Structures are given as structure tokens and as C-alpha cells.
Amino acid sequence: MKRRGFLGGALALGATPAAARPVMAEHNAPLPMLSPPITDGRGRDLTLADFRGRTVLLNIWATWCAPCRDEMPTLDRLQAKLGGPEFHVLALSIDRGGFDTVRAFYSDIGIQHLALYASDQLRAMMALGVVGLPTTLLVSAEGREVARKVGPADWDSPAVISQIKHVVSKG
Length: 171
Hints:
Blueprint: H1 2-14, E1 25-31, E2 38-40, E3 45-46, E4 55-61, H2 66-82, E5 87-93, H3 98-109, E6 117-118, H4 121-128, E7 135-139, E8 145-150, H5 158-170
Parallel strand pairs: 4-5, 5-6
Antiparallel strand pairs: 1-8, 2-3, 2-6, 4-7, 7-8
């Protein structure tokens, strides 16, 4: 009996609550990044260098990706909560239908705070090392990848907001 009690206690001490774990896996050291060509909703050609000076949550997504569609409202709420001179959500669509498809989707689900960004699917996936959608990268103000998550998340959760604020405070 004592043995069970000891093991139960040891397991409880070694357990880490899910809420304490970062949502995005952080790298040991920031990684250099390539940038695909990005076009914004006004037709301007951009690269990730245009966002230097602020932390960016770069989400690569498409309207045909069901998990991507499901997480977009949380990205919109995150931009509404934290977006500004120090932080920006860059939701990068790789839809072949272009901005008309994305605008219709944003309108259908009530996206109000995310700007429109698009890139060629193959170029974006190759440059950013994307193997599945959605893929989200946390990019430092210096333009280096500090964390990555493949798969959907609740981007406006307290855990994500805490992780982002920590990265912003370093920059």
C-alpha cells in the first residue's frame, strides 16, 4: 500500500498540467527564415521583412482546410486583443481562388480584424517548410522563427496569449 501511495505522489509531482505547457513548440534558438512572396489585400507585394520590428503569428491556411476554417475566428479574436505596433496576426492564405475566395469566407464567418494576405501555395509551403495545414509560426521582431505548431489551436486562449506576450517582451 505504501508503494502505491509513493508512486501516485511521484507521478503527481512529475505531471505537468496541459495549461502550463506552451501551445507552440519553442525552438532552442531562433531560426532564420525564408519568405515567400506575399500579396496583401490592397495588391501590395510584401515579404516577411516588411513586418520586422513586431512579433508576428504567421498562420498558413486555406479555405478548403476544415481545421483552418475552424480556427480562424480564434485568430481574429487574437488580433483584436493583441494586434498593434508590437504584434500582428498574419493569416496567409494559400488558396488558388485568391482574394475573392478569402473575402467571401471572411464575410461568411464574420472575420473583422484580420487583414487579407495571400501567397502561392507551393512557394509558401517550400519557403516556410510547411508539411500540413494549418501551420503556424511565431516570428520574433527580428524576423526569426521562435516557435511552430502544426495543426489547429485556440489562438485566443490564455496559454497562447501568455506565450505571445513572453516573446513580445523579449523583442
